[in-house]
TrEMBL record:
A Pfam family of this chain: RAWUL
Molecular function terms from GO: zinc ion binding
Ranges of residues in domain RING-type: 16-55
InterPro entries in UniProt: PcG_RING_finger, RAWUL, Znf_RING, Znf_RING/FYVE/PHD, Znf_RING_CS
A cellular-component GO term for this protein: PcG protein complex
Signal peptide as annotated in the record: none
Organism encoding this protein: Stylophora pistillata
Keywords per UniProt: Metal-binding, Nucleus, Zinc, Zinc-finger
Region: Disordered, residue numbers: 117-139
The protein, known as: Polycomb group RING finger protein 3
Polar residues bias spans: 117-132
Subcellular location as annotated: Nucleus
Gene field: PcgF3
C-alpha cells in the first residue's frame, strides 16, 4: 500500500540553501555533497571558498573545480514540482527575447561591429603575419589551470631500478593532465618504443590511463603532503 507524501515535507531536500527556491541547474559540491542552484553557488564561490551549508573549506584556491552538475537531482525536482520545468523554460525564452530586443537599433549595429572586428582578428588576411613569439603569447598552455606538483620515481624491485631514473623527477603540471600524458612523457624521456610499455603507480596501485592528476590527488593522496609521489615501471604483459 502506497503512502502519500506532501510536497512541503520534501522541500528541505529539493530547495537551494542560498536562495531558498527550488533547485534550478542543480549543482553539487563534490567534497560534502550539498546541492545548490548553479547560479547561486557560482556567485557564492566567487567570494568565498567554503560550503554555505556545512562551512567545510572546499579548496583554498580553486573551489570552483570541485562542483559538478547534478542532473539526477534536477530531474527529481522537475518531476516533484508541477510546472517548474515549463516555467523555467518560459523564463529562459523571455530572457533570450529581451536580449534580442536590447540588441536592436544602435545596440545591434554595435554588436555586429564587435563581431566583425573579432572575425578579422580571429581570421587575419594572408598578407598579415606574426612571429612565433606572438603566437605563443596567445596560448597559456594550461598555466592558468590548478597546478599539481609531482615526483616521478623509478620503481625498485629487489633493490634494483627496473628502468632508468629521470634526471629531473620533479614536475609541475595542470591538474587536468592524465596518466596517459605522463606515460607518453616517460616513453619519450626513456626512449621506449611505446607508451604502453610503462605502468604508473600510486601507493603500489596501477593507475588507469584516463585518471587525471586531480582525481588521483583526491582519491589516492588526499591527506598526504606535497608533492604527489608516483612510481613507474615496465608494464606487466600477460600472455
Amino acid at each position: 500500500m502506497y503512502q502519500s507524501v506532501k510536497l512541503r515535507e520534501l522541500n528541505p531536500f529539493i530547495t537551494c540553501g542560498i536562495c531558498s527556491g527550488y533547485l534550478i541547474d542543480a549543482t553539487t559540491i563534490t567534497e560534502c555533497l550539498h546541492t545548490f542552484c548553479r547560479s547561486c553557488i557560482v556567485k557564492h564561490l566567487q567570494e568565498e571558498n567554503f560550503c554555505p551549508t556545512c562551512k567545510i573549506v572546499i579548496h583554498q584556491s580553486y573551489p570552483m573545480n570541485y562542483i559538478s552538475a547534478d542532473r539526477t537531482m534536477q530531474e527529481i525536482v522537475y518531476k516533484l514540482v508541477p510546472g517548474l520545468q515549463e516555467r523555467e523554460l518560459q523564463r529562459q525564452k523571455e530572457f533570450e527575447v529581451a536580449m534580442f530586443m536590447y540588441r536592436t537599433g544602435e545596440q545591434q549595429n554595435e554588436y555586429n561591429a564587435m563581431n566583425l572586428t573579432k572575425t578579422h582578428v580571429d581570421n587575419p588576411s594572408p598578407s598579415s603575419s606574426c612571429t612565433s613569439n606572438e603566437k605563443d603569447e596567445n596560448h597559456d598552455y594550461h598555466r592558468g589551470d590548478e597546478q599539481v606538483a609531482i615526483c616521478m620515481e623509478c620503481y625498485r624491485g629487489n633493490g634494483k631500478y627496473s628502468l632508468k631514473p629521470l634526471t629531473r623527477k620533479y614536475l609541475r603540471l595542470s591538474s587536468q593532465a592524465t596518466v596517459l600524458h605522463l606515460k607518453k612523457f616517460l616513453a619519450k624521456k626513456l626512449s621506449l618504443d611505446d607508451h604502453k610499455d610503462v605502468d604508473i603507480l600510486c601507493n603500489d596501485e596501477i593507475l588507469g590511463k584516463d585518471h587525471t592528476l586531480k582525481f588521483i590527488c583526491v582519491t589516492r593522496w588526499r591527506f598526504k603532503g606535497c608533492p604527489l609521489l608516483l612510481h613507474y615501471r615496465p608494464s606487466l604483459k600477460l600472455f
